[in-house]
Amino acid sequence: METVPEPKYWHLRTVLSEALDSEFSVGEILPNERDLAARFGVARATLRQALEQLELEGRLQRRRGVGTTVAPPRMGVSVGTAQHAWPGGPHDAWQTLDCALEVPPAAVAETLVTGRDESVHVVRRSRVSRGQPVAAELLYIPAHSVPDLSGIDAPSGTARARAVLRELQRLELERQENAVELGSARADDARELDRLPGAPVLVVTTRFIARGRTAALSVATYRADTCRLTFGDSGGVEIHHGPERHAS
Asked: Which spans of this chain does the record mark as coiled coil (predicted)?
């Protein structure tokens, strides 16, 4: 086979990646495009291609009103199958935002084995790293998983969400099953994650199983530019703040 010449932007991407490792620190703002293009002796169009590739790989972040900055190490998302814990436990790093009774999407209702018009508790949570939103979660919990909520007057809000999670933890968790897929940010996800609609995201779906059936379903949407997947049974989500780089 003939050797295909390396595109100029890809060679520049390699040079820029090495410069990020040796000359810049996490959060540092890069020089503007004109100065970078002059430094490396390339056209600005070539530079933009290289920067876009590094942004896609999670090495750079483009922040409105700030510029292009060096991204922190990606968050490690464990997709192992070991039993962990219910959402909302003492070591849970998610922030609880809201809860409401809603009719879930048809696919969720099928997984939960609820009627198509039956409302479930929908708990909204977020995950933040270094002050930046990196994930948004919708946690679907059917009524049969949390039957003793009669003492909670609030129909929605943070107090209701915490009460639902406390009640859920009364069940004995048998196991959890995870699935991961690459997707595109919907408008509401993009707004919460400070991304543009259609930006690449990782969607991690987790089934929490108790009493032989799905007691809760988590649909967590992670920014693809800040997360990496880890496989095995080592535990839950870990955030890596060290200077080391990870293959993604």
From this structure: none
